[in-house]
Amino acid sequence: MKSAWWIVFFLTITALNIAELVKSHHIQILEVFPWLANLLLSVCALKILHGTVFRPTVDNSFLESLLVEESEKKSHVDLGQASFLSKLTFSWINPLLRLGNSKPLSVDDIPSLGSEDEALHAYTKFNDAWSLVEKEKGFNISTNSVFWAISRVYWKNMLLSGVYLSVRTIAVVATPLLLYAFVNFSNLEDKNVRKGVFLVGCLVVLKIVESFSYRHFYFYSRRIGMRMRTSLMVAVYQKQLKLSSLGKQNHSTGEITNYIAIDAYRMGDFPMWFNILWVSIVQIFLAIAVLSAVVGIGVLPGLLPLVICGLLNVPFAKLLQNYQTEFMSAQDKRLRALSEILNNMKIIKLQSWEEKFKGIIESSRRSEFKWLTQTQFMKSYSTLLYWMSPTIVSSVIFFGCVVFKSATLDAGTVFTVLAALRSMAEPVRVLPDALTSLIQVKVSFERINSFMLEDELKREDLIVLPPREDLGHVVLIQGGCFSWDVEVDRPTLRDITLEARVGQKIAVNVLGSVAYVSQASWIQSGTIRDNILFGKAMDKNKYEEAIRVCALDKDIESFDYGDLTEIGQRGLNMSGGQKQRIQLARAVYNDADIYLLDDPFSAVDAHTAATLFNDCVMTALANKTVILVTHQVEFLNHVVEGGQVTQSGSYQELLIAGTTFEQLVFAHESTIGSFDTSSSTNQDDHHMEHSNQLDQNDRPYNKEDEILTNPRIQLTEEEEKEVGDVGWKAFSDYIFISKGLTYSCFSTLAQLGFVAFQAAASFWLAFSVRNSKTNGVYVVGIYTLISLLSAVFVYLRSLFAVLLGLKASEAFFSGLTGSIFNAPMLFFDSTPVGRILTRASSDLSVIDFDIPLAFSFVMAALTEMLAIIGIMASVTWQVLFVGIFAMVSSKYVQGYYQKSAGELMRINGTTKAPVMNYASETALGVATIRAFRVIDQFSSNYLKLVDTDAKVFLSSNATLEWLVLRTETLQNLTLFTAAIFLVLIPKSYIAPGLVGLSLSYAFALTGTQVFLSRWYSSLANYIVSVERIKQYMHIPPEPPAIVEDHRPPNSWPSKGRIELLDLKIRYRPNAPIVLKGISCTFKEGTRIGVVGRTGSGKTTLISALFRLVEPHGGKIIIDGVDICSIGLKDLRLKLSIIPQDPTLFRGSVRTNLDPLGLHSDDEIWKALEKCQLKTTISKLPNLLDSSVSDEGENWSMGQRQLFCLGRVLLKRNRILVLDEATASIDSSTDAILQKIIRQEFANWKLVEYDEPSKLMETNSSFSKLVAEYWSSCTIN
């Protein structure tokens, strides 16, 4: 501050000396010495300032005490602890900026939020208001409850931010009157210096008030917007935890994520744009009042075009709202489809459906792009309207002055009118943006409101009673009817009567805690330990026992990182059996009273199933109530058929009763009856020999110390972000990737043309008013013509900027989509879906809307500022010294700020994705979260993620206002210098017209500099989205889909012979080898069974066959063709697979069976008949067009597996791979399917190595697996 003072003092002394020199043409010698002393002081001050701003980067970490606490290291001053002066000048953010200039910032460097800004506080206030609004609303369903709840909470804050903006508006509107006073003062023959100094003092006060009020309006508005945003983000998250099945059908996981990522985020700017809208209208009317005070009734004709231009806003606004609604709808459709595709990319690659699903995304984007184009072109037309209106209004006012003779067209009148109209130009310029933003906010309010009003599970309907020993049951259902949809006539479950007693095992009055294991396993991203503990404290003995009884100990021993092994999103790097056992261990460790197990043994082998049933269900849970739902009849004691409980009792009682249960048992026994029971003699030898090729090596179990001391990247790497200043690289990437250099050049030229014509019009007026004899109509006519020409150029500028933006949108979307669909499976295994979705939603939205606007504004502000300084210098050349100093200093300050701002923007990009990931992950596991009653725990974790994202947002905005306040101060020096010169210079030295011209532009200088700083900073921040999308545009692709020189014959494979030659597989270059030199031959026309323990490598072998992972060594030969020599599409289309996890896509029955549309309805019906689905689908009203919801949730797991069988029956390839295809269906259906497969693929290949009968005769691993399965069936 001292340095700045000496610099300002020196400039002021210099200005006074120059003024004295000009006035008296001499200066006393004694006054030179103080000036020289001040010069030296200012040079020293500049050096100190330079050293402060550009302090070299020094790593001082070695100077810190190794024992210092983390909290003591942080020297940041939080906003809540800052002094008034620190808050006023945004100096509280100085420590963060200094730190950002010494090293790249991390999220831990950013000050934490105050309690009033935390998400919990914001949500609590919103939730209370929401409850009141819902009570008051009554039957008025058209009321937007979300909007009124937000208004109820934040109306006082909105009012305060409006006061800030109103004060600034008064200062802006008063400026033309001050200009009028300056021009009149310059016309005086005998100038009173005191009066001149008083005018300069008034100017200083006005600019200080304008500066501080505007800066705090922006910061406070965004701070309030942040609170609104976080409250809605949490509200949407809490709603999805309470959403009923009916409500969930109307809102997919992708849509819910969109409500958080886009709609709630949009609320961050709502307070700012709302206040800008109404204050801009007020500012226009105040400017009209100023005009009427200056020109009298001459202002009246100008009101007509003003009203016309205002009325034209209405149709523009309606069209923009319609376009925005359609755009958001199309964007929802695209993101919903993309989310589903990313979550199921493995099955898409196995089936070689990439082109089909890529086409779906591109089709949705074409619809989205259509509405984007309409919106952007409409903005171009509105730009022409808004820039023409000041010209037309000023021309009509000047004509009114001539006609009504209400005011003389002298310098004071003309330039006061222009200054007043310039004060109108700013609100006119931002009005379309305010309208557009508020239209988007309105659409988002409606979307969030519709979601918040969806049907939900009422917690008040659930009565939780403490356990009572006098009751004979802990679960009692009497005559229960249950349905997924309340509107259907026939419930899914009818007349259910069920009683469960303490300690009873069974395969809502609820007394006690509940643990739930779903059929489709739900695993969180994190470590195995995190998934088992599920937020509970570690009890080592209890933890190790849970691992043992769930048969996870051998698996954990085989992992490099033990139980600290990281699990990918949705358990991508775990087998189906491992995921199911982790789920079961989570339930066991939870130590609940009641266990609900939904077919937990379907994804594991028979030995593991028997171990789980005996060690876990019957032993570890011996004193618990267990309700087990399964199609494995050896575990049954209730029978459900057709949605009703048809039989109930023990195993023997049900067997004696006959009918349904007897049929199930008979089907089960017929399925396993072909096995030689003599092999059961091997059942005592339960330690299975490791297969020399498929099993992994044993490793020590407890590796925690080693992992903590030698941390390495496991599966999911930390999200990549650039470091350092954004620089011109990202800008050039934006231009050249979009191939928009021509449009950017034309847009720049059009802006130069606009500025040139605007300056020409101003100079014309300045020189014309010198001669009072000049015809007023002629002067105004020429001015109008020149100004209208400038409006054409501003339209061209906007048009070319829009065309550049549209080209960039196409180029970046195309590059991102192509790269994603060509990426290898390893990329999806190691990359959370949220990271990809964030780039495809918010980052792409920035490229669609924000960057073209910011580019246009930066270019416009830069050229205008240069023109302003040039015009001021043409009148008072001395201003150049201060102007150049202010511009250079502003550049220095900008550079100092940008180092931290760029890092904050990048960090913000990495803090947003975890919020979306967590919300998406929660949506998939809502049933488990509810059952374990850990809603509060998940909500707490989500609040932490939201607060982390919010603190980055708040600091980013604080640094921006810090920058703008200082650059504004520097440019005000130029303005004050010009004002001092114009006050002190004699009347004869400069014509009054030029005084008015110089001051009218000088008053616009500060605003233009602020506008430039703000939008340049915004552009630099927006361009980070280009960096982020570009990262995923250059993913190393998988091998080509088609290799033209090595295309196999159409008849390939004609036999189906598969040869594995020393095959070795590893998933990553630094990962251990999983398949270790397999060599064997699968002869044509035979059925090969690959058997082994869960996690032994069976699925890896299938991945190698389909080249989801490329061989590390060796070859796979099919009918004499090395599969690595041909294209992936040629290979995968010739292979069929029924995967371990059955996958359905949102759509219809037809699109799920035949996504490529290659088969007729008759062929589809035949396939459905063979896979036992024809009867079910024939009863549906829409037949083949019947809906399939997200993840196929409206179909059972078994039915989903039957759909997968139907697909391969349609394809009829020579090689069929079954990856535990019958794991999720009952034994009766299993037997039927095996019969169908034998019939349909009689002479085809279905993928220990040898004939089963020979393996059974030896002491092989295969014989032991069969023996264990038979044993489990007979014992249970």
UniProtKB/TrEMBL annotation:
Disordered: annotated segments: 675-702
The UniProt record lists the keyword Transmembrane helix: yes
Catalytic activity: ATP + H2O + xenobioticSide 1 = ADP + phosphate + xenobioticSide 2
Localisation per UniProt entry: Membrane
Record's signal peptide: 1-19
Keywords on record: ATP-binding, Membrane, Nucleotide-binding, Signal, Transmembrane, Transmembrane helix, Transport
Family: Belongs to the ABC transporter superfamily. ABCC family. Conjugate transporter (TC 3.A.1.208) subfamily.
Protein name per UniProt: ABC-type xenobiotic transporter
The organism of origin for this protein: Rehmannia glutinosa
High-level lineage: Eukaryota, Viridiplantae, Streptophyta, Embryophyta, Tracheophyta
